[in-house]
């Protein structure tokens, strides 16, 4: 597989920016699993992609982090522990969906490999608590015929944050 990794990697990266969520999830899983074949070479490339201007790309890269984490010991674990803070820094991202996928990745790490996030709880928990607040600016009214319905665009983010808080209680 190693000789083909660069071509596969480039092909996957071309589809990180897709508007179709299903495609981004498949690409993220493939990137995460492919990173396991050459962690020293590919993990830094994922870290660098976190600074990409595209929110779709950032959310795909963070989702890929979730697929690198398993409950069994792997050679990538020490490298993951070193860069987990970089992935959690995207909690400060301006885009709601990017923050939501960070919570999902954090929750996966806390559940499957608590050692990856244990040292980050002091800095991560305040950000986590901040994301549980209801934000009125994320509410919008949707008209459905003669009815008006209020939608909270931050609800998924808030639920994911509460899930992380629950899981992190078992980590410390």
From TrEMBL:
Residues annotated as transmembrane: none
Keyword flag Thylakoid: no
Alphabetical keyword list: Repeat, Ubl conjugation pathway
Domain spans labelled TATA-binding protein interacting (TIP20): 116-167
Region forming the signal peptide: none
Pfam family, one: TIP120
Keyword Repeat assigned: yes
Alphabetized SUPFAM superfamilies for the sequence: ARM repeat
Gene Ontology biological process: SCF complex assembly
Family of this protein: Belongs to the CAND family.
Record protein name field: TATA-binding protein interacting (TIP20) domain-containing protein
Species this chain originates from: Daphnia pulex (Water flea)
């Amino acid at each position: 597989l190693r000789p083909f990794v660069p071509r596969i990697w480039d092909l996957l990266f071309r589809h990180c920016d897709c508007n179709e969520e299903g495609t981004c999830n498949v690409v993220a899983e493939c990137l995460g699993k492919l990173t396991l074949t050459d962690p020293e070479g590919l993990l830094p490339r994922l870290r660098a992609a976190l600074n990409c201007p595209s929110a779709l790309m950032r959310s795909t890269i963070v989702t890929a982090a979730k697929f690198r984490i398993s409950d069994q010991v792997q050679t990538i674990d020490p490298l993951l522990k070193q860069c987990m803070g970089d992935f959690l820094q995207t909690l400060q991202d301006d885009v709601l969906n990017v923050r939501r996928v960070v919570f999902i990745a954090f929750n996966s790490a806390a559940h499957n490999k608590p050692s990856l996030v244990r040292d980050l709880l002091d800095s991560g928990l305040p950000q986590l608590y901040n994301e549980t607040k209801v934000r009125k600016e994320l509410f919008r009214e949707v008209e459905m015929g003669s009815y008006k319905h209020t939608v909270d665009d931050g609800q998924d983010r808030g639920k994911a944050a509460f899930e992380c808080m629950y899981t992190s209680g078992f980590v410390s």
